[in-house]
Amino acid sequence: MFSDIDYITPTYINLNNPKFIEIDEMFFSCLLCVNYYREQTDLILKNLIDTNININISIFYEKKDTYKTIKELTYHIGNMGVELKENNQNRQDMEIAAFSYNDAKYIRKEMQINNEELYYMYIYLTVFSKDKKELEYLLNKVEGMTQSRGIQTRRAYFREEQGYISTLPLMQNNNYLKNVTKRNILTSGILCTYPFISSSIFDEEGIFIGTNIYNNSLVFIDRYNTNKYKNTNMCIFGTSGARKIILY
């Protein structure tokens, strides 16, 4: 006898290729976001959410204890200050130490003065397609889109299964991937990852009007809902021959 789980279980799963996984003739490949700017002025995922590429996005946040973090930063700043004063390292090491020193001071100042809080953030992107060549094309396209937003990505070769599971609605952030994608970010920086930015029009009792050209979502409007729409008249504009209609 079949149960509910049998109907949603895939027919087969192929994990033999390190570059992608195959599930029921669909190919999946994961991108790991390994670095991005701490301070952003725009939503970094906007172009990905608005696109019509088949992509699953998972974002995980881990809030750090404020008191413990400030204490660790103070200890780190003290050690870095000593190393910079001794000045017995080569130039490259000195530049790295100076960057780490200034970065730690900036984070501590924001937490103490501006009441910011520190988080670890993890972002995973899983792109899927029925064709392997198209999958490679979409991966290159997504990599270009993320790079334009200041996000550095790395393909999850030999870790495709973990990446795929991390982008399922299971709330599982794989520890094997966390070590690669962990990135500290302040509260103000988290705002740039707000994902609910694509507008949609969907009334439960509405009739199908068309599709949203920005995110390919379906548009259903109940024009007789006087509580929501004060005027039930509607006009649709389009080019000649586009089969325009007017509803009264």
Describe the structure.
The protein is an alpha+beta fold. The chain has 8 helices and 11 strands. It has helices spanning 4-8, 46-50, 66-86, 91-113, 132-148, 160-166, 175-181, 187-190; strands at residues 13-14, 21-23, 26-36, 55-63, 118-129, 151-155, 183-186, 207-211, 218-221, 234-235, 246-247. The strands form 3 sheets. Strands 1, 2, 3, 4, 5, 6 and 7 form a 7-stranded antiparallel β-sheet that branches. Helix 3 (66-86) runs antiparallel to helix 4. The longest helix has 23 residues, at 91-113. The radius of gyration is 24 Å and the shape is globular.
Describe what is shown at a glance.
This protein is 36% helix and 24% strand.
